[in-house]
Specification:
Layout: H1 11-37, E1 42-46, E2 49-53, E3 59-63, E4 66-69
Antiparallel strand pairs: 1-2, 2-3, 3-4
Length: about 70
């Protein structure tokens, strides 16, 4: 059975981390919106494969130098 121990990390550290994560998420959202506005595909990786989120909402998979339609 585990006993509850008081964390040795001050609460202010957790608050700072939450603040940094919030700013990072906001910046990421701004980049995604700008990519969509400028009609730039947004690349992302899922289970080792590279996909592109197209400005029109389609998701395409890049396989061996060719682009295959995914959704």
């Amino acid at each position: 059975m585990l006993k509850n121990k008081k964390s040795s990390i001050p609460l202010v550290v957790y608050r700072n981390i939450a603040n940094v994560m919030s700013r990072a998420n906001e910046a990421s959202d701004r980049v995604l919106e700008e990519n969509k506005r400028l009609h730039i595909p947004t690349p992302f990786s899922l289970q080792g494969r590279i996909y592109n989120l197209m400005p029109d909402g389609r998701i395409v998979c890049r396989a061996r130098g060719r682009i295959k339609r995914k959704i």
